[in-house]
Automatic annotation (TrEMBL):
Lineage of origin: Bacteria, Bacillati, Bacillota, Bacilli, Bacillales
Alphabetized Gene3D superfamilies for the sequence: Dipeptide-binding Protein, Domain 3, Glycine betaine-binding periplasmic protein, domain 2
Localization: Cell membrane
Transmembrane segments: none
Signal peptide: 1-19
Name of the protein in its database record: Glycine/betaine ABC transporter
Length: 298
């Protein structure tokens, strides 16, 4: 699918990765000990099924962080830990990704990844079950056309973190972006209450996108959409075994590559709905480190 003529999207939040190195004085600072000591050799992770966790394990191997621990949890728990540390100006290292509201709310930076453990920037794809095209052609067509930018997604994400309910934030976005939404549904027939299941994982980015797609399918095309919140593995399995109809949460080509390979042939990839993502280790800007390599040397 050639929905994106240009991949030269600038993503707010990526700029944090550029930092000036040099003249840093070595192993410790006022709060005592190495960076590892300060954060108790812990990296705050998210849900275990996330590709980001597998990539972080790979990074820990690549950079020789064998005495470090990647703590499992959830997106929400990671964000809460970051919020708490940030308010107290304490050191913390989290697994992070763009697009995410945390880059608007806090002053953060990605640690440089000279070994390339986190791969290249990638895309978020829309993936549907086999046979959806025949069973729900208008939903299929809308899902195929759905694409937006990190900035547009940020509007919904920021509203949600500021306390708006996800479905309301999505409805407001759909209303405010009627022209864009018109193009997604142009000339498609309306259903009357036909059921559709969207699988998603409770990552902030996917809460935003899945809710927007739900609103459009319901308001504009007359579907009755059920959102199934699952883990990453079951999300892919659900599309492959047709217990879910579609998802807009496939991070490719790297992050979900194992799922993609595992279920090859049992789903249809409708291409990118967003380009310009990034994954990595994220720290508050007040921390005196710039690279993953600093975790061993500082
Ligand atoms: N994420 C956000 C997901 C994809 C969306 C980066 C946390 C993952 O790692 O699988």
């Amino acid at each position: 699918m050639f929905k994106h003529a240009s991949k030269l999207l600038l993503v707010v939040g990526l700029t944090g990765a550029i930092a000036i190195t040099g003249c840093s004085s070595g192993s410790s600072d006022a709060s005592g000990g190495t960076v590892g000591d300060q954060v108790k050799h812990k990296i705050v992770g998210i849900d275990p099924g996330a590709g980001l966790m597998k990539q972080t394990e790979k990074a820990m191997t690549d950079y020789g962080l064998s005495d470090w621990k990647l703590v499992e949890g959830s997106s929400a728990a990671m964000a809460a830990a970051l919020d708490k540390a940030y308010k107290n100006e304490e050191p913390i290292i989290v697994t992070g990704w763009t697009p995410h509201w945390m880059f608007a709310k806090y002053d953060l930076k990605y640690l440089e990844d000279p070994k390339g453990s986190y791969g290249q920037d990638e895309e978020i794809h829309t993936v549907v079950r086999n046979g959806l095209k025949e069973d729900a052609p208008s939903a299929y067509a809308m899902l195929d056309r759905f694409e937006w930018t990190p900035d547009e997604m940020a509007v919904v994400m920021n509203a949600v973190v500021d306390g708006t309910k996800p479905e309301e934030a999505a409805a407001q976005w759909v209303e405010a972006n009627a022209d864009k939404v018109d193009a997604w549904v142009k000339d498609l027939p309306k259903e009357s209450g036909k059921k559709l299941k969207l699988a998603f994982v409770a990552w902030d980015s996917e809460i935003a996108s899945t809710n927007v797609v739900k609103q459009v399918l319901e308001q504009r095309l007359g579907y009755k959409v059920e959102m199934l919140q699952v883990e990453a593995g079951p999300m892919w399995a659900g599309i492959a075994n047709s217990s879910a109809d579609a998802m807009v949460a496939a991070w490719l080509p790297t992050t979900h590559q194992d799922y993609y390979d595992k279920y090859q042939g049992q789903f249809e990839d409708l291409g990118a709905n967003l380009v310009g993502t990034k994954l990595g280790l994220v720290v508050p800007s007040y921390m005196d480190i710039n690279s993953i390599e600093d975790l061993i040397t500082k």
